[in-house]
Design goal:
Chain A is of the alpha/beta class and 430 residues long. Helix content of chain A is 25%, strand content 27%. The mean pLDDT of chain B is 90. Classes of the chains: A alpha/beta (430), B mainly alpha (197).
């Protein structure tokens, strides 16, 4: 399978290598977890917290350095201090339990769409367990995955100048193929190969974000996936409709975070995103850290999760919604995800906002905001304390072109989470 | 050897039992910024009044909790209040300055190394807290000489400090190993999941 994926005459240039790194014992664990996920009820009763919460609090206060320093475990979740991305960013090691095996750690690098990139601790079993939640989400639409040995299960799409690309296999699906592909033309010997390659792979599922899916539509490949999984950024109704019409299959809009994995999936019948994880509790907090009145919007705050290398206690995601309990099933209403933005370069091409994140990766910027005016000029807002203006300016010129206009503005306080990328240029939001 | 433990106090065992039987109200979550259940400043105020000490609002300010970093210190302060509420202390008429130093600086020093709950559950830490309380007001347990009391307190504290130093060293080593492991190329290249955020 790996040779087929790599050596196909229309294959792209794969720039990286990856593997599932699962042991036989891991595989058993992943399979057992999948059975548990598919059989579990997700939810709690109004005004109550799930019974497992106290055990998670006690485990964290005993096993996680950050919490151990706070003293004895509180008896109520509300007495646990909420944390945010900034806390994880200060030193991720403080949030990794002592019981997590250092020699098997892997990292999840955040996309940086809404902040500076982060390295998060994870484990091969955690990465492999994503599929259990995808299957649960697909099952809501009556889809049971049926591919197996010799077939391609999933193609993950990116559309970026620089993208992590590789081929792999999924052991729990009979070693079926997995390909992470960049649709950007620079990763292909001939841009027409993109459609031909995807058609040859004929994956049962295609995963991507709105920007890569918009590019996929423009290629119009002859593939018939049974579902599209959309993550990372808010999916517009128009793009969703166009994708469903072309591919004749449902598009699952997943609310997924590197910090927590797949949290929820949009279900039109439920009127919002239904939660997927049976060991994940969601609170909605106001600006002062208090729970909002039922029905009101608040910041989605997560406790629990399946990443045993990064258990979450009251993790403020920076995303907002209201919460409704439908017969005990929690539904996130009007989830405000991360809006996708693409920027127009001086060469007239579109680039994904993630390109800017990558270009800025090495700068010690806790926060910044980039806006593109309708005339193409860029306005970059930087923290007052940041000194390397010239380097940042140069990085933008390298990305956008030497003639790019860039105005830099100093900001004393961004006032919490910001919408990092915005644009007035028509077509900036696919 | 100093003569700071010149007065004889109550039997050690009676205060150890008292601490071991701390009621749940004194183990509850300290109020900090609106969260929590026990207003430690009010508890300290009540205790000082019962010991015949007049505390101003400013004296009590530090027990109101400025942030989550104060949580363990306030929890230890609650335990000290429970021990000091034993009837023996009212008869001993401790000095106001000694009490305030114990409840603030003393609590901070104890809390810096040890989770409050351990002062109830762990026999050595229980004994340390009781001896620190007595020493703060110039007393030693009944039946002990000054030298015996000093030696025992020093030995308990030194053992705890050694444990804390070793734990901190091990924690820093592990944190460094985690940071290094996550930065390795192989860690990046094995995040093999079906969707990317």
């Amino acid at each position: 399978m790996l040779r087929f994926l790599r050596e196909h005459p229309h294959a792209p240039i794969y720039r990286n290598e990856s593997g599932n790194r699962l042991t036989a014992a891991d595989l058993e664990r992943v399979r057992a977890f999948e059975r548990e996920v598919l059989a579990a009820d997700v939810g709690w009763r109004a005004g109550e917290e799930p019974s497992w919460i106290q055990a998670v609090i006690e485990k964290c206060y005993g096993d996680v350095p950050f919490y151990r320093r706070l003293g004895a475990p509180p008896h109520r979740l509300a007495d646990v201090p909420a944390i945010s991305r900034a806390d994880l960013g200060r030193d991720i090691a403080q949030f990794v339990p002592d019981s997590a095996p250092v020699d098997r750690l892997i990292n999840f690098r955040t996309s940086g769409t809404t902040g500076h990139p982060l390295l998060l601790a994870s484990h091969p079993v955690v990465a492999a367990s994503y599929l259990a939640f995808h299957k649960r989400a697909l099952r809501r639409l009556g889809i049971e995955l049926r591919h197996g040995r010799g077939q391609v299960g999933v193609v993950l799409l990116g559309h970026q100048r620089e993208c992590f690309t590789y081929v792999s296999v999924t052991p729990t699906m009979g070693e079926s193929g997995l390909a992470k592909v960049n649709l950007h033309e620079r990763d292909w010997r001939d841009s027409n190969d993109r459609g031909k390659y995807l058609a040859a792979l004929d994956p049962e599922v295609i995963a991507g974000d709105p920007i890569s899916f918009a590019e996929l539509l423009s290629i119009r490949p002859s593939v018939r996936p049974r579902a599209l999984l959309c993550t990372s950024m808010a999916l517009s109704v128009a793009l969703r409709g166009a994708l469903e019409e072309y591919f004749k299959c449902p598009v699952l809009d997943l609310y997924s975070l590197n910090e927590a994995g797949p949290v929820a999936v949009f279900d039109e019948r439920a009127g919002g995103h239904v939660l997927l994880q049976h060991r994940m509790f969601v609170e909605l907090l106001d600006g002062d850290g208090a729970r909002v009145v039922p029905g009101e919007r608040g910041e989605i705050t997560l406790t629990g999760g399946f990443n045993f290398c990064l258990p979450l206690l009251r993790y403020r995601t920076g995303d907002y919604a209201s919460l409704r309990l439908d017969a005990g099933e929690p539904v996130l209403i009007d989830l405000a995800g991360r809006p996708p933005v693409r920027f127009r370069t001086m060469r007239g091409e579109w680039i994904n906002n993630i390109e800017v994140t990558h270009a800025f990766r090495h700068f010690p910027l806790a926060q910044f905001v980039l806006h593109q005016n309708v005339d193409g000029a860029l306005r970059l807002r930087l923290p007052e304390s940041f000194r390397d203006d010239a380097d940042v300016h140069e990085a933008l010129l390298a990305l956008f072109g030497a003639n790019q206009l860039v105005e830099i503005e100093r900001v004393r306080d961004f006032g919490g989470k910001v919408v990092q990328y915005t644009s007035d240029v028509p077509g900036a939001q696919p | 050897m100093s003569n700071r433990l010149s007065r004889e106090g109550p039997p050690l065992a009676s205060l150890l039992h008292r601490l071991a039987d701390t009621p749940v109200d004194f183990l509850a979550e300290p109020c900090i910024r609106g969260a929590g259940q026990v207003h430690v400043d009010a508890v300290v105020g009540d205790l000082l009044t019962s010991l015949g000490v007049a505390a101003t609002a400013r004296d009590l300010e530090r027990f109101a909790g400025r942030g989550t970093g104060d949580r363990n210190m306030l929890a230890v302060t609650l335990l000290l209040c429970w021990v000091l509420a034993d009837s023996w202390f009212a008869s001993a008429a401790p000095a106001q300055a000694d009490l305030q130093r114990l409840l603030s600086d003393g609590a901070s020093e104890l809390a810096a190394a040890t989770a409050a709950r351990r002062f109830v559950d762990d026999p050595d830490r229980r004994e340390e807290l009781v001896r620190v309380t007595l020493a703060a007001i110039g007393c030693r347990p009944a039946g002990e000489s000054e030298a015996q009391a000093e030696d025992r307190l020093t030995s308990l504290s030194a053992a705890e400090r050694a444990r804390v130093v070793e734990a901190a060293r091990a924690a820093e080593l592990r944190a460094r190993q985690i940071r290094e492991a996550l930065r390795k190329r192989v860690a990046e290249e094995s995040a093999d999941k079906w969707t990317r955020e």
